[in-house]
From TrEMBL, chain A:
ABC transporter domain location: 3-226
Record InterPro entries: AAA+_ATPase, ABC_transporter-like_ATP-bd, ABC_transporter_ATP-bind, P-loop_NTPase
Keyword field contains ATP-binding: yes
Sequence similarity: Belongs to the ABC transporter superfamily.
Pfam families per UniProt: ABC_tran
MF terms (GO), sorted A to Z: ATP binding; ATP hydrolysis activity
Protein source organism: Thiothrix eikelboomii
Name assigned to this protein: NitT/TauT family transport system ATP-binding protein
Keyword annotations of the record: ATP-binding, Nucleotide-binding, Transport
UniProtKB/TrEMBL annotation, chain B:
Chief subcellular location: membrane
A single BP term in Gene Ontology: transmembrane transport
InterPro entries: MetI-like, MetI-like_sf
GO cellular component, one term: plasma membrane
The protein's name: NitT/TauT family transport system permease protein
Subcellular location(s) of the protein: Cell membrane
Transmembrane segments: 61-80, 92-112, 118-135, 169-188, 216-235
Naturally occurring in which organism (per UniProt): Thiothrix eikelboomii
Family from the record: Belongs to the binding-protein-dependent transport system permease family.
Length: 247, 247
């Protein structure tokens, strides 16, 4: 059953720049999809359209906006709220108030993510990795059907990013939300996703729809993964700059 | 906590000392000694006059302060967040900033009658444009990224406003309140001098008739002390509490 349908004809910014032309895909319920493409190709714009933050475009999108979470590139925590209150903030949304399990879920997540001792801390006192954990907790605590992620681990050092990817996969396995994960790292996409959509340079189109032939649970650095990585790039040397052309 | 008051108190004490020495050496009836002023202050307190006039003035200060903040904050937010409103009201704000306080006071008294309402409105009108300008700055500096978080996580309008938007205005609110208190009580004295029969301004007018410098200084210091007290006991602790997350 498809939970997300994106059918975009055109997105042109006010300055005349065409970001997207003829971009369509559907995502099945529970699927983990990565969007990979060169930077500046409008990946964030696509997520913003799905989330309903960007409304001026030609095309149609069907998405469960009433049960959607979005983890932005920056953690975007309210700096004046403690870790706990940042999570409580989204739990107070009118649509969640009937959910009597929500605070129990918050406690579980705080524990799972190792945030219990930081619950009274303000974001400014946390490291980059911890801030991402809070953002993850906030994204999962609402039990989204659809989770959008915009290069959430990009500016972290590799071990920390690797930890967070593990945590993400664990949380995902627990509740199986549908995930659309934007990244420009092929390795990250291969580690996380069931399916990778490779985007072209602007105006963005899908150049390759690729199902990742790796079983779960995946360990993070394996020879399988590396073999797959080099095999893909051998087959399509221009893939990461958004083209299937062979040299 | 221990250190902050020492320089403040030292400066105060040395000012009083210099004044005392100067008054002793000049021996003029136009520069009474601090002790003579203190005696006058005490006599005024004993007769009840001091308390009567101070509270009349304080009441007017608080009334016009609240009125000015309420209106100024509302319009300031509107102008800072809606370009259309800003275009329409900007000229009025600049005119408002430049009308002399005395003119608004006189006109209010003439048009509204020599009453309490006219006095309070006249003072508020003088302050409103400044509040507007400060809060407009604040509204323009609001982080749109955080508002997107509120939108994506489906917070209601009032939740988004009070828990995501409003806290970002605190620094600007405090700036407006601080400057407001300082400006407003000065204007209130003028209003009282011109058209009220009680309050510190009215008393200063009386003392001026008799060139009674002791009385003038006694009332001035009493009210300055009151404003300092407000600042130390209300504004500063409140600000510290709300700014905890910045540490």
């Amino acid at each position: 059953m498809s939970i997300l349908t994106v059918d975009l004809q055109d997105k042109t910014f006010a300055n005349g720049l065409q970001a997207i032309r003829e971009l369509s895909f559907t995502v099945q319920s529970g699927e983990f999809v990565a969007l990979v493409g060169p930077s500046g190709t409008g990946k964030t714009t696509v997520l913003n359209m799905i989330a309903g933050l960007e409304t001026e475009f030609v095309g149609a999108i069907q998405a469960p906006r009433e049960a959607l979470s979005y983890m932005f590139q920056e953690p975007r925590l309210m700096p004046w709220l403690t870790v706990e209150n940042n999570i409580r903030l989204v739990l107070d949304a009118p649509c969640l108030q009937i959910d009597s399990q929500r605070f129990a879920r918050m406690e579980t997540l705080l524990q799972q993510l190792g945030l219990t001792e930081f619950r009274g801390a303000f974001p400014k006192q946390l490291s980059g990795g911890l801030k991402r954990r809070v953002a993850l907790a906030r994204a999962f605590v609402t039990q989204p059907q659809l989770l959008l992620m915009d290069e959430p681990f990009q500016s972290l050092d590799e071990p920390t990013a690797q930890d967070l990817r593990q945590i993400l996969l664990q949380l995902w396995a627990d509740t199986r939300p549908t995930v659309v994960f934007v990244t420009h790292s092929l390795n990250e996409a291969l580690q996380l996703a069931d399916r990778i959509l490779f985007l072209s340079a602007r105006p963005a189109q899908i150049v390759l729809d690729y199902s990742v032939p790796l079983a779960r649970p995946r360990s993070m650095v394996t020879s399988d993964l590396q073999a797959l990585h080099s095999q893909l790039l051998q087959q399509y040397p221009q893939l990461l700059s958004g083209s299937l052309k062979e040299i | 906590m221990k250190v902050w008051w020492r320089p403040r108190v030292l400066v105060l004490i040395s000012c009083v000392l210099i004044w005392q020495l100067l008054a002793w050496s000049l021996q003029s009836r136009y520069l009474p000694t601090p002790s003579a002023v203190l005696v006058t202050l005490w006599q005024q307190w004993l007769t009840g006059d001091l308390l009567y006039h101070l509270s009349a003035t304080l009441g007017r200060v608080l009334a016009s302060f609240s009125l000015a903040m309420l209106i100024g904050v509302g319009i300031g937010i509107l102008m800072g967040s809606r370009q259309r409103w800003n275009e329409w009201l900007d000229t009025l704000v600049i005119i408002g900033l430049n009308i002399p306080a005395l003119v608004t006071i006189i006109l209010c008294y003439i048009w509204l009658g020599l009453g309490e309402t006219a006095a309070i409105i006249a003072v508020a009108i003088n302050k409103i444009p400044m509040v507007i300008v400060t809060l407009r700055e604040g509204a323009r500096a609001v982080d749109k990224d955080l508002l997107q978080v509120a939108q994506v996580y489906r917070l209601s309008f009032s939740q988004s406003f009070w828990r995501v938007y409003w806290p970002q205005l605190y620094p600007y609110l405090f700036a407006a309140a601080r400057n407001g208190l300082a400006l407003i009580w000065k204007i209130v004295l003028v209003v009282e001098l011109l058209g009220r029969s009680n309050g510190v301004g009215f008393q200063l007018g009386n003392y001026f008739h008799y060139f009674d410098i002791k009385g003038i200084l006694a009332y001035t210091f009493a009210f300055v002390a009151l404003i300092l007290l407000l600042e130390t006991l209300v504004l500063r602790p409140l600000e510290q509490r709300l700014n905890r997350w910045r540490e």
